[in-house]
Design goal:
By secondary structure, the chain is an alpha/beta fold. It is built from ten helices and eleven strands. The strands form two sheets. An eight-stranded mixed sheet has the order 3-2-1-4-9-6-10-8, sandwiched between helices. It has a three-stranded mixed sheet with strand order 5-11-7. Helix 1 packs parallel to helix 2 and helix 9 runs parallel beside helix 10. About 45% of the residues are buried.
Length: about 280
Amino acid sequence: MKHLTACSLIITTYNWPHALECCLSSILRQTQLPQEVIIADDGSEPETKNVVDAFAKKASTSFPCLHVWHADQGFRKTIILNKAIAVAAKPYIIQVDGDTILHENFISDHLHFAKVNFFSAGRRAYFTKKATEYLLNNPTKIPSMRDLQERKKGNALRLPWISTLPLFRAYATNSSLKGVLGSTLAYWRADSILINGYNEEMSGWGCEDNEFVVRLLNAGIRRQNLFFSGIQYHLEHPINSRTDATFNNSIYRESLLKKIVACAKGVDQYLSISCPS
C-alpha cells in the first residue's frame, strides 16, 4: 500500500504562545513534514500571532502556514476547528493541540496508518511540571523519557514493528469511545464534511471531541488506535473549567443514542468562505 503524503496539520491554540512555540518547533523536526499547517486560534492576543508569523517565515520554503483566528468570546473550539477544516487544502487532517510536543515520527506514523473509512486516535505522555517549565523557556529542546510523569509514561514508547503486526492491528481497531483525545486525532477531511464537522451547539469545554467521534462512528467510519506509534507529549497545565460539561454531555448522549451523523450547525456554513476570520 502506498503511504499517504498529503496532509493538513491543524493546531488548536489559545493564549499560550510559549507552548505553541514548543509545538511548532517540534514540527520542524519531523521526518516527514506536513503539506500545510493551520493554526486554529480561538481568539489569542497578538503575541500568538507573532509566534505564528515567525514560524511561517521559517517554514515558508517547505509548506504554507495559515493563521485562522476569530475574536475571543469564550471557549469556542468547535467553531475555530470548523473554520480550520473549511480552509484545509489536503485530503487528510491530523489534529493536535498547541500545548503538545510531537515526536519526530509523529506525522510519518499517522500517515503510515491512514486508511480509507478509518480515523486514528492517538495517545500521549505527560511532562512533569519541572520539565514543562524548562521546555517553555527552551522551545527547541528535544524532550526525553526522564522529562515525563510516571503515569502513562508507556505512551512514549515507540515500537512501530509491534504496531504493524496483523493481530495487533486487529486489536487496535474498534468502535470504542474511550480515551478519545482531540489533541491527537486524524481523519479524512471528506469524512469530517460528511458529518458536518464539529457541533457548534456545544458551548465551552467538554465532550466536543467525543461528540465529533461518535458521529464519525455513526457514519460507518471505524476507529484505529495508534499504540506505540504517533507519539505525543503534553505540557503540564491547570485543568480547564468544566462549567459547560453537563450541557455538552447531553448533546453527546443524544448523538450517541439517536445515532446522529450530521450535526445541524457545523462546518458547512464556512465551506464557501476562502479565508474565514
